[in-house]
Amino acid sequence: MSLRVSDAVIWQESPSGISLYHTETGRFLTLNETGAKIWVLVDSDGERELVISKLSLLFGGRNNVLGNRIRTEVDQFIDSMVDDGLLVERAA
Asked: Rounded distance, CA 60 to CA 54, Å?
């Protein structure tokens, strides 16, 4: 699945993470370091599975149990960003 940042979102990196502003809802959100890493990978890579795989390897290494947990949590985070209209997902 192809991911991209919604056109309705203005975002900026800062030392504390990434700040998001959804122009349609007026909602502000600050992502922590982990959420910011996911956001930047989505913006640069644009593919759900690629983002999930990179983070699973980065934080889980060769530990399959930890890697699977990370995959699940990153997938859920991306789903929540799509549900909130911050990210847009399309079939590739």
From this structure: 10
- Concatenated DSSP letters for 58-86? HHHTT-HHHHHHHHHHHHHHHHHHHHTTS
d(CA 88, CA 50): 16
DSSP helix/strand/coil, 46: coil
State both tokens at 60. 């889980």
- Residue 3: Cβ within 10 Å count: 22
Q: Please, how many CA atoms are within 13 Å of residue 50, restricted to the half-sphere of its CB?
A: 13
Q: Specify the residue for token string 């900026």.
A: 12
Provide the pLDDT confidence category of residue 20 given band limits of 50, 70 and 90: very high
Map out the domains of the chain as residue ranges.
Answer: 7-84
